[in-house]
Specification:
single chain; about 250 residues; alpha+beta; Muramoyl-pentapeptide Carboxypeptidase, domain 2; 4-stranded antiparallel beta sheet; two-stranded parallel sheet; 8 helices; about 45% helix; about 10% strand; binds zinc ion
Length: about 250
């Protein structure tokens, strides 16, 4: 009997120890995971390669305030706002050309008509927008849907918000569920674009799912990002780092 009791006590002790180790390991893992996620707008780095097609612009990497792309061209695709003087209708030359090819492929392969809504946005425009949002909603809320000046990808001239008549020209999550939106998500990489803020990486990008927000990175990077289900952060900070081409 004594031996049985001793055995039971030993077993409970063993299970307790295993339980504690499991909890400890789980907590350590959680902490490591948290450490992977940067604190937004802290330790901000000003990037040295603003003109690179792979320039990383997010809540921790910022463009110089005076960065203006030198090769902006008027888009030659259906426009939401037809004013040719509107900076939102401009993109850098290579991205504008790639967008035209993407739109033409959507039409030729599927009969889908896409509309370009918002491309280049200058630093000054972002200052105006962000200030207005902060006045209306406060900093915390504004930060969830608008970038602080210097932190908007639209300032690169490589980013475009697109839409279609099936969502009445809106920039809305439902675009991702339309035939056009699905086709874009599966084919944009062929033309060098990525869906920059995917549904399953919100914690890391700091942005809600934006199926309408495309970023031009070139076909090689876009295909790798698409095939391996990466975000630009993964590609620039890990894949490119391994290839030692961080600042091209
Ligand atoms: Zn956008």
């Amino acid at each position: 009997m004594n031996r049985m009791r001793m055995f039971l006590i030993a077993m409970s002790g063993l299970f307790l120890t295993i339980g504690m180790i499991t909890v400890f390991l789980f907590q350590t893992q959680l902490k490591e995971k948290e450490a992977d996620i940067p604190a937004f707008y802290q330790d901000v780095v000003e990037i040295e390669n603003p003109a690179s097609f792979r320039a990383l612009v997010n809540k921790n990497y910022r463009l110089p305030a005076d960065y203006e792309p030198s090769d902006l061209v008027l888009l030659d695709v259906p426009l939401y706002n037809k004013d040719k003087n509107n900076e939102a209708n401009y993109l850098r030359k290579e991205a504008a050309h790639a967008l035209k090819n993407l739109f033409e492929a959507a039409y030729n392969e599927k009969g889908y008509e896409l509309i370009a809504r918002s491309g280049y946005r200058s630093y000054d425009t972002q200052v105006m927008l962000y200030d207005r949002y902060v006045k209306e909603d406060g900093v915390e809320a504004a930060d969830t849907y608008s970038a602080r000046p210097g932190h908007s990808e639209h300032q690169t001239g490589l980013t475009i918000d697109i839409t279609s008549d099936s969502v009445h020209g809106g920039l809305t999550e439902t675009f991702g569920e339309t035939d056009e939106g699905k086709w874009v998500s599966e084919n944009a990489h062929r033309f060098g674009f990525i869906i920059r803020y995917p549904e399953d990486r919100v914690d890391e990008t700091g942005y809600q799912y934006e199926p309408w927000h495309l970023r031009y990175v070139g076909t090689e990077a876009a295909t790798s990002i698409y095939n391996d289900q990466l975000i630009l952060e993964d590609y620039v900070l890990h894949v490119m780092k391994q290839m030692s081409v961080l600042w091209d």
